[in-house]
């Protein structure tokens, strides 16, 4: 039987993990120098979904509230960025507006909706996503309504523009991951996990559960809105059906489950594996890629029901136990 890990050993592993994370971020930042446009687009999409999944991780993985319609904040971020740019704001200012508006909406609607629990809350978030589509269509005017909203074109040539968007998406993934890691080490993170493990018990301990959940959802929405804002600038034309597409949330949920809920690097791992797997399967099975892709996802879920990160840790612990016993 292996001995329990010492605090010094845990610190060394943490330093090693962050060293690998920093090295990986540097490699990815330099990757556009060697990548063609196709793989540049694939990786940009991976970073986008990793950011959205980290946002989902805050409210689902850390807090335990399954927001099936959390992609609504992707749409709010996209439209906030698009409207701000059509009104003359530069992209950096519009991106700040996307984050702020998404977080504000979550803070406002969170007070009544987050009093719901379980499947009632999940259904309410889906309804919010559907309502947002109709709201954008009915408002019209600055949102473009059902006809969509074209964004001002950038002055940069296509090559430098796409590399810049790549780097901004990469920064979103890195910062959102660091933010989740920071939350986990703070009293706020302990409060979120206490709510996840037992909300009534958390309330008895003196935690303001409603305010804590609203804050978590606002953070989740801000992260998701950031990804939506960058996506809108990347696409240059948005419409309600694509900006508030429920498939974005479904895909992020799959990535979160595959990587590991409530972990720091799990959402990033899930995004890389799922998106690359989807790309490779699509390239190898043009006629039946969805069937093959679905079968592979089912197999992964059966082999690693708690996520690939947890499964990997279990395998390492078993290996250490066997070799320690020997």
From TrEMBL:
It is found in: Cell membrane. It is a multi-pass membrane protein. CDD domains: TM_PBP1_LivM_like. InterPro entries: ABC_transp_permease (IPR001851), LivM-like (IPR043428). Keywords: Cell membrane, Membrane, Transmembrane, Transmembrane helix. This is Branched-chain amino acid ABC transporter permease. The lineage of its organism: Bacteria, Pseudomonadati, Pseudomonadota, Alphaproteobacteria, Hyphomicrobiales. It comes from Xanthobacter aminoxidans. It holds the Pfam family BPD_transp_2.
């Amino acid at each position: 039987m292996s001995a329990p890990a010492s605090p010094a050993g845990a610190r060394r592993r943490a330093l090693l993990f962050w060293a690998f994370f920093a090295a990986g971020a540097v490699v990815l930042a330099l990757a556009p120098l060697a990548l063609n446009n196709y793989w540049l687009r694939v990786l940009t999409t991976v970073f986008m979904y990793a950011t959205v999944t980290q946002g989902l991780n805050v409210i689902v993985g850390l807090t335990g509230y399954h927001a099936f319609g959390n992609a609504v904040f992707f749409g709010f971020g996209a439209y906030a960025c698009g409207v701000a740019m059509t009104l003359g704001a530069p992209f950096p200012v519009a991106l700040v507006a996307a984050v702020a508006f998404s977080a504000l909406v979550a803070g406002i609607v969170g007070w009544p909706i987050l009093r719901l629990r379980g499947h009632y809350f999940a259904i309410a978030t889906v309804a919010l996503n559907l309502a947002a589509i109709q709201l954008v269509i009915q408002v019209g005017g600055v949102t473009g309504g059902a006809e969509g909203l074209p964004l001002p074109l950038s002055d940069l040539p296509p090559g430098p523009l796409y590399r810049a968007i790549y780097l901004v998406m990469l920064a979103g993934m890195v910062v959102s991951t660091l933010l989740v890691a920071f939350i986990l080490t703070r009293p706020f993170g302990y409060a979120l996990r206490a709510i996840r493990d037992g909300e009534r018990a958390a309330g008895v301990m003196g935690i303001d559960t409603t305010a804590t959940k609203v804050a978590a959802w606002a953070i989740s929405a801000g992260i998701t809105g950031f990804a939506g804002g960058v996506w809108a600038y990347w696409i240059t034309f948005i419409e309600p059906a694509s900006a508030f597409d429920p498939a974005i949330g479904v895909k992020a949920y799959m990535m979160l489950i595959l990587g590991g809920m409530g972990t720091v690097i799990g959402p990033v791992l899930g995004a890389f594996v799922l998106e690359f797997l989807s790309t490779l399967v699509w390239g190898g099975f043009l006629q039946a890629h969805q069937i093959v892709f679905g079968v592979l996802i089912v197999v992964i879920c059966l082999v690693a029901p708690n996520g690939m990160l947890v499964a990997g840790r279990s395998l390492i612990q078993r290996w250490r136990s066997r070799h320690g016993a020997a």
